[in-house]
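quick one, two chains, predict together pls
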Amino acid sequence: DAGVTQSPTHLIKTRGQQVTLRCSPKSGHDTVSWYQQALGQGPQFIFQYYEEEERQRGNFPDRFSGHQFPNYSSELNVNALLLGDSALYLCASSFAGGPESYNEQFFGPGTRLTVL
Amino acid sequence: AQKVTQAQTEISVVEKEDVTLDCVYETRDTTYYLFWYKQPPSGELVFLIRRNSFDEQNEISGRYSWNFQKSTSSFNFTITASQVVDSAVYFCALIDPYNAGNMLTFGGGTRLMVKP
């Protein structure tokens, strides 16, 4: 049973460019959340997708956008990259259904984005 | 607003010592969920435990134990007889469903170094 997978592993971009990160959730999961983790800090919630719609959003600008596909996989897009966008981007999947919907979120290995 | 504080940024112990990682949380809600995650150098967040606000029983899993005290808004994590493989960054996190939906709010993390 494959866990959460993310691609690419590492990425280097320059300021002003655009980037797309990808995530495939754990089998049986239907909800995908994205987090940004700057060096030495805890992850910060970007947004969450469920049923192909953005269900919840953290305090991130509109330059950050996403998408969820019918197979539950997801993309995170960042436009007009800034130096401050350099971070580890983590994808987490979970199952929204059931009486205890606040179950653990399973995280992928992350994509390390460096903006020069 | 919800908040998680991990006052210890870094702890260093010698193998076989016991170590406690502190976590203090803030939420205005009576229903919430607390988590601990481990982040080894590879970067992937590994789920350790979930606790809901109505279950104050302490839990033990092998060398790991958790002490949940609502009176002090704390959810501390103890590793007994630490091992070098326990070296990682540990994050405490909170889900506050009514105020913040299904997003995880993380503390800043505690880096644990276990020396042989």
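The mean pLDDT of chain A is 92.
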